[in-house]
Specification:
By secondary structure, the chain is α+β, with helices and mostly antiparallel strands. 38% of the residues lie in helices and 12% in strands. It has 11 helices and 6 strands. It has a 4-stranded antiparallel sheet with strand order 1-2-6-3, with helices on both faces. It is globular, with a radius of gyration of 18 Å. It starts with a helix and ends with a helix.
Amino acid sequence: MNDLMGQIGQLARSLGIVDIGVADVRAWENDPISEMITESERPSSIISGSRSVIVIGIPVQRTIIATAPSIYYSEHYRTINYMLDCAAQRITMELEIMGHASAFIPRDGYQGIEGLRKDASSFFSHRHAAYLAGLGTFGVSNMILTKKNGPRIRFTSVITTAELPHGSPLGNEICTRCMRCRNECPVDAVASCPYPKGITEKKMCVEYSASLRKIGCSPCGCCISVCPVGEDANGPLPADDAVIRIRSYTK
């Protein structure tokens, strides 16, 4: 198992993956938070006989997210999604070559803004997979927060029948409950209490993202930009005049 995980880890790093973890498929059955995931959205329903979910992550650069909402962040967001999908597909192919039935889940499992307007969810939650793999914990904004990057990291997943050494949910919460994400949300979509009791109003996020899309700078990114959690939180930022100029480049 460790040899296989080592091979996957090396491949992932060569593909630009910064963070990687594994969740046990059985964790969806007995974790109190992930029990809310419906049966059809669990990995065992997507691949029968699956044992592991490999979760891979690429950070959102602090300097870029500081300009959000902007075309700069919008392009960065799309590039990360593309890199994650390509890396997950490559890992899936390698597992298949080694005889392990596998399938990757696209970074965004919905059909754009219009798809989110019909159903503000996806068919698989990468956030819960990352949580169950021990990569981070949920914040007030409903995002996964990691010790290194706070909420400024995006994940995707590979479901496989391979048995791999897996992690488990972290014992301590990472979110400080400072409520900056709630205070900075331009549409007041973030709940006042922690997840899973507090659920972000996704429809409000979607409609705001739709308005930003018209000027070429969706998604918003405000909640993850202001979060003080993460080793990157005190990193260098662009000058105010640079931010103003970058934000001026909209359609």
